[in-house]
Amino acid sequence: MASEYKTRTGDDFDRDQFESLLRRKVFMWPSFEPYGATKGLFDYGPPLENLEAEVMNVWRDHFIRHERMMALKCSMLTPYRVLETSGHVAKFADYMCKDPLTGDILRADHLIKDVIESRLKSDREARGEKVSAVEEDPKLKKKKSKVTKTAVKLDDAVRKEYEHLLATLDDCTGDDMGALIKKHDIRSPISGNEVEPPVSVNLMFQTQIGATGKEPAFLRPETAQGQFLSFQKLLEYSDGQLPMASASIGYSFPNELSPRNGLLRVREFLMAEVEHFVDPESGKKHPKFASVRHVKLPLLDRKTQTEGGSTPTVTTIGEAVDSKLVDNETLGYFLVRIMTFMQRIGMDMNKLRFRQHMANEMAHYATDCWDCELLNSHGWIECVGCADRSAYDLMVHEKATGTFMKVREDLKEPYEVEEWQANLDKKKSGPKLRKDQSKVEAALNELSQEMKEKLSITMADKGKVELPVSEMEGGKVELDKDIVTFVKEKRKVTQREYTPNVIEPSFGVGRILYSLMEHVYWTRKGDEARSVMSFKPTVAPIKVLVVPLQKDTRFATLLSELEGRLDDAQLSFKVDQSGVSIGRRYARNDELGIPFGITVDYESLEGKGFTLRDRDSTKQVRASLDEILEAVEKMCKGKETWEGVSGRLPVFEGKVEEEGKEE
C-alpha cells in the first residue's frame, strides 16, 4: 500500500506489511482474542513488553534521576468526590453523534475530520492529483459500500474552507461542531444517514469501592490527582524546598467512544506524568533554563493554526520564552527535555513538532499547553502534553477538604498588618452547626477583608449575620454574635503563604511506543520482504542474537560459555539454533530489532575469536570474546557506536548475508 508517509529510508510505508510483522513477531494483539477481542484493549507480547520496559528505564533516568524527582505510586481506584472536585466528573468528556437509524455512535470531531478528508481526497482524484491509498477497516467495507465514492471536484473556495476547517477543528466547541455538521451536511460515513447533534459524554469508567455500593468511584483518567493529594507529604520529604517535582508511572482508563488505530486510541494505557511545583512569584523560572536556551524546537503556535497553517516555526526556546510564545522558563525547559528524551529513545526528529493548544481545546485546569506530536502513518499524533496547570488542583482540593495545601516560607523581614478577623467560638457553635462547623469555618476564612468589615457592621447593628456557605443545604447559614465575632487586630507577619503553580508533562506511553516502531521500521533495498526494526541498542527489546554457524555438538561448550558471559554482563540475548541458513536467521531476527549478532563458527573452536554483526549495515568484525562483549556493552549503554567499534576491531568479510532471505 503506497502512502505519503515514508520510512526512515525514504520509501513508501506499507502499513499492511508493518502490521503483519507486529502480528508475526508477537509484538501485540487484541485482548481476549479467543472471545472475539474487545475494542480498545491490547496485550503486549515479549518484544513490545521488553521495549516498553527499556523505554521506561530511559524515562526514569532522563526525568526522575536527572531532575531529582520524587517517584510515587498512587491508587488507580479514585473516589467520586476527588474527581468531582478536580472537575473531571463534569468536564472529562468528548462529544458524540448518534446515527438514529443504525444506532452507531460516532465521535463528533472524528466524524467531521473523516468526512472532510474524504471529500478533499475525492477532489484531488477529480483534479487528477496523485492520491495515496487509505486503509479501510475490513469490518466496515460492506457497510461503507452504501456510501457513494465517486470523485467530485470542489470549488476552490470550498476546498480552501475545508482545509481551514481541518486546521482549526481542535478549537471547536460542541455547538461549533453541531453547526459544522449541519452546514456541510456531514453524514455517517458508514450508512450515509444524517446524525443527531453532538452531545457530551463522560469518558471515565465508573465503579464502586466495597460491596455496599455506597462509595462510588472511578478508574482514574490520569495519575495526577494522587500526586496533588500527596503534596504535603512531598513537601515534607523535600524539606519544604521549591521548586520540587514528583513523577508517577501507571495505568489510566479513558472510556473512549470510538477506540481505533491500534495503540493510538485505547481504553487502558500506561502514562508517565510529572508534576513540577513552582513558586508563581518567581516568574516560573527554572534554574537550568540557561543551559537549554540555545536549543531549537519546531513550534506550531496558536496564531498559525487559527490562520489555517500547519507548518511549525523552528526557533530557540530562549527566543520563544522571551517573546512569551512559550509562557515561562519552566514550561520551556520541559519542552526541551521532552524533545531530548525522544532523541534518546530513537525517534525520527523530522517527524516531531510541538503544537500549542487552541483556546477551546485546553483542559479545564490549564492556562497554557503544548503537545509534543509525532508523525506516523495515521498523521500527527499527540504523544505528550505539557501543561501549565497553574494552582488549580491544589486550590480546589484544599477548599473541598480543608486540608492545608500551601507552602509556608519564612520572611527575611517580618512586617506588621492590621486585619479583620472572623473568630468562631467552636464550643458554642458546635451544638448548632454540628457536622457543618468545618464548612462554616472554611467559609469565614475565605471572606475578603472588605466582606469581613461589612459583616462586622451588620453584626453590630442587628446582632446576627447571614453567611454564604455553598456546601450547606440552602447555601447559607445565620450566625449570631454569641457564635462569631468580627474584630480588627494587628499581627506580625513572619511567613508568606502561597499555593504553588504546577507544570505538568504527561506522556502517553502506548502512543510513543507505536510511533517509535513505525519510525524505526524499514525494508532492505532490493528485497522489500526483508523488514528491519532499527531500535537503538539502548532500548532494543533484545540486545544480542547468538547464532552457531551450524547444528554441531562441538559448539555446545562455547555456546554455554557465551551465554554465561552475556548473563554476567546483564545483556538480554536470544539463541537461534534452528536448521535454516545463518542468513535467514539473521533476517528474521532483524525483524525483532536485535541490534547485534554474535556468530560461533569453526574458527571459534580453534580459539580465533567470534564474529560480531551489526543489524543495520550487516557489516561484521572479528575479535576475542572479551573484546566483543566490551564493545556490545558500550554500545548498549550508548557509550560507543558501531562506527567506532568497526574502526578499532578487525573487519570480517563474510558471505552469509547473500543467503539472508526470510522464509
Automatic annotation (TrEMBL):
<dbReference type="GO" id="GO:0070150">
    <property type="term" value="P:mitochondrial glycyl-tRNA aminoacylation"/>
</dbReference>
<dbReference type="GO" id="GO:0005524">
    <property type="term" value="F:ATP binding"/>
</dbReference>
<dbReference type="InterPro" id="IPR002315">
    <property type="entry name" value="tRNA-synt_gly"/>
</dbReference>
<dbReference type="GO" id="GO:0004820">
    <property type="term" value="F:glycine-tRNA ligase activity"/>
</dbReference>
<dbReference type="GO" id="GO:0005739">
    <property type="term" value="C:mitochondrion"/>
</dbReference>
<dbReference type="InterPro" id="IPR027031">
    <property type="entry name" value="Gly-tRNA_synthase/POLG2"/>
</dbReference>
<dbReference type="InterPro" id="IPR036621">
    <property type="entry name" value="Anticodon-bd_dom_sf"/>
</dbReference>
<dbReference type="InterPro" id="IPR045864">
    <property type="entry name" value="aa-tRNA-synth_II/BPL/LPL"/>
</dbReference>
<dbReference type="InterPro" id="IPR006195">
    <property type="entry name" value="aa-tRNA-synth_II"/>
</dbReference>
<feature type="domain" description="Aminoacyl-transfer RNA synthetases class-II family profile">
    <location>
        <begin position="185"/>
        <end position="537"/>
    </location>
</feature>
<dbReference type="Pfam" id="PF03129">
    <property type="entry name" value="HGTP_anticodon"/>
</dbReference>
<protein>
    <recommendedName>
        <fullName>glycine--tRNA ligase</fullName>
        <ecNumber>6.1.1.14</ecNumber>
    </recommendedName>
</protein>
<dbReference type="InterPro" id="IPR004154">
    <property type="entry name" value="Anticodon-bd"/>
</dbReference>
